[in-house]
Amino acid sequence: MGAILTIALTTAREAVRRKLVLLAALVGAAFLLLYGLAFHLAVGNPRSIVNAASRALARQGAALFLLLGFYAASLLVATIAILASTDTLSGDIASGAMQTLLSKPLARWQLLLGKWLGFAALLTLLQAFLLGGAMAIAYAFTGYLAPHRAAGLALLWLEMLLLLTVTLLWGTRLSTLANGVLSLGLFGLAFLGGWIEQIGALTHHPGAVRVGIVASLIMPSDVLWRRAAFEMQPALLSVLALGPFAGASVPSPLMVAYAVAYTALAFALAVRLFHTRDL
Amino acid sequence: MSSAALVIETSGLRKVYGRKLALADLSLEVRAGEAFGLLGPNGAGKSTCLKLLLGLARPTAGHGRLLGRPLGDIPTRRRVGFLPEHFHFQEWLSGAEVLQLHGRLFGLAPEILRRRVPELLERVGLGAQGAKPLREYSKGMQQRLGLAQALVNEPELIFLDEPTSGLDPLGRLLVREVIREQRQRGAAVFLNSHLLGEVEVSCDRVAFVKDGCLLETRDLRAASAAGGPSLRLRLRARDLPADFWRRAVPVARAEKLAGDAWALDVAAEAAIPELLRALLAAGAQVFELTPLPQSLEEIFLRVIGRDGGDA
Questions:
Q1: CB contact (8 A) between residue A105 and residue B149
Q2: For the whole model, what pTM was predicted?
Q3: Shortest distance, CA B266 to any CA of chain A (angstroms)
């Protein structure tokens, strides 16, 4: 356990020393500033609206706008999760630092788990900052709180962990650039697949829905986003099945379970591939 | 030699990367407390050998034991130190932090590290630079830090892969002194090098590798103590009869050098007085008859061959 913790703390220290944490915090702050400004300009304050029907409509606007915030924040976290961890294995192997680390009494799975924990902790902080900030802004302006927040945020957290795990998996064998291309590519594939499935469901094209599901099976990151958005949207929006962020084709709990199993298997495969790699 | 006194024993180690044969068949034994050198041209398989011994790569065939345990055994690594050939420590750490990180991975207690890290930095001549971040270190300073890193756990067996690369003459002297100190402490040293002088000064035994094969193992200390299996002499003499070397003299080979000098190969030291008597009896005027320490370079060139390396 001591060795795992040492690696996790070293990973976190690297992110701090290489200014990753500072820059992520600045980007996050800029994101929230922009989001708050947009919220103010686009939604305004429904509490000041006297007419009840207009007030209900404005609440739906706030709900939609909060989902937009979650959507943008999740994209940002996903990209940062991939970019921040793509170099951590291949970079250390190329520099020779890995060879000195692994000549210590430290199993390779311990090193992998330590790095995973270090990144997971930092990315969780970033995610909490962005998603919590977006929620706080929506609440401050409108008094609106999304439903099923715990389930929704847990799903978004899982999406981040999935992307981190997949990036570490390919980092056990690929160079930094190749890993970045593959991991971002898989994320993009899932993203596109999600849209194909949504549009297919809206326009009643079962073939398109099937294509989307296959993409989700290859990389189930978008599944988690769509399930989270479904959980956190107000009842009226889900009835209308409107909006780009959720609705038309909702991933089943089975698909969510698949994503969890996928993450666990990706980690197990990463351990296996790293264990047998010649350094 | 009982196997308890062996720190390394390998049998038929072989490593193939894809279609490239890195190590064909390596069987060797290193004794406790010994300094063992692996000599060979670049690309001979020296670094591959170290990676297999340290469990960084898996052998395609063959097996071995390190400190009595199978290769790749993780607890054994507590007792082993390693300086890789090419490495670049995390540049966002300071020198002292690198040593602390590696010490913690060895499971050393914080109070031990608080004492040992400054001592080691001092020992490798980085006492004043310990707090500096590594991005301000030169290649030579990184190499010194790498050496300190290999000693942080007071290992019983130390692997040094080209330890003097990037070091100035003072740094090379430091490496030599550190090897001597570690041996006095009782540690065995396994030295990979293509620098003959380095191996000659520091090692008891040396193995020559080429194209992934072990060509020959030589006991340097025994050879110099006994005068060597074949001893080379330098002779300066005048008035030597023309047919002298064809007479019954104990000389295996005589080579005429510039002026009145000769290079002679004799079987053993015992041949020297006999040869001198024969020279005097033949009426030669002898100015010099000196045994030459046969340099490792000569052995290297003979064993590996002049076309041996791309180095």
A1: no
A2: 0.85
A3: 47
